[in-house]
Hints:
Strand content: 25-35%
Number of helices: 7
Distance between the termini: 57 Å
Structural class: alpha+beta
Helix content: 25-40%
CATH topology of the largest domain: Chorismate lyase
Amino acid sequence: MTTTLPPPAPDARLPRHIQVRDELMRRVTDRIWKAGEALPGEARLAEEFGIAVGTMRKAIQALVHEGVFERIHGKGTFVTRAFERASMLRFVRFRDGGQKTLPEARVLALQTVDTPDAEVRDKLQLAKNRKALYLHRTRAYDGEVVLAEHIWLPLDRFAKLQRYLQKESPPLLYPVYDAVCGVVVARAVDELSMGQMPAEDGALFRNAVMGGSPCMRIERTMQDHAGAVVEWRVSFVPPGLFRYTAEIR
């Protein structure tokens, strides 16, 4: 028989809007509110919590600032769907100047790593006895590879993904993390640097790139809403395919 425990009581020492903020966050991490879902109106939530609308607005705004919620003008407040804005392909230059279709994905390797090396453990914040799932894949348009990716995930959270990818090769992984594994990505940290093309990746591109040649290296660390690291990814793009655009206001 499974017993469902009630949520922990809020810390009465904290300001009321912080207590409410923590409860709203709990609803997201427990998937009571799912990615992309609209929150009830502020007045309705304020009534539920027995607080003023201004206090509820302050609690919600704190989570908007943290990237957990997003406000869409004229529509309301939603749980952030971070994966929709986190595509690595924004760093790739397309031949036609603008590509709207989803890329093809090809899995080249998929394996359990029983003893991840120190760098992988550090990036994923893994204890020594935890295993990792490693994924090597390409992204392509019309058969032309534009990106090579090396992805590491904590196996205990992504065991179902391993079975799924043995049969499927989805163009986007973040929606699959959510649908198959119940893991919602919330934050992305991207670090761009000049790197050296791995020999195993260079031959994958149309104009083959010699292993060790200069290329763009994109390192990404993904976290869930609770701040736990759920993915570490390193991608490689030849110089001729790379682009970076930043708008500053």
